[in-house]
Give the backbone structure.
Amino acid sequence: MEWERDFTVDDRETRLVETAQMVARLQALLVEDLELLDTAQVFTADGCRSLSEWASSRLDLGLETARTIVHTMRRTADKPWIRQALAAGSISFDRAEALS
């Protein structure tokens, strides 16, 4: 694209970091919403055996990816500082998983 030629390498690096921070903030929302839906046991109403199975089908994720999100959600339930850092975009989801 023509407009992309105006970007410098520094501009691209800045945009890359900002995009990663946005992704982390969005993943924090996934964790928050999944926690509420887990409490409501929504997966049972759809005939799924687990929240991971439900999230996999509902979010079009691989089962292992869904399991990772659900496990991280459960392991960070009592670690608000991890959730806050993820929501702020100051850590990645992978870092939140490792810290949990």
Q: What stands out?
A: The helical segments are 9-39, 42-45, 51-59, 63-75, 80-88, 93-99. The first helix runs from residue 9 to 39.
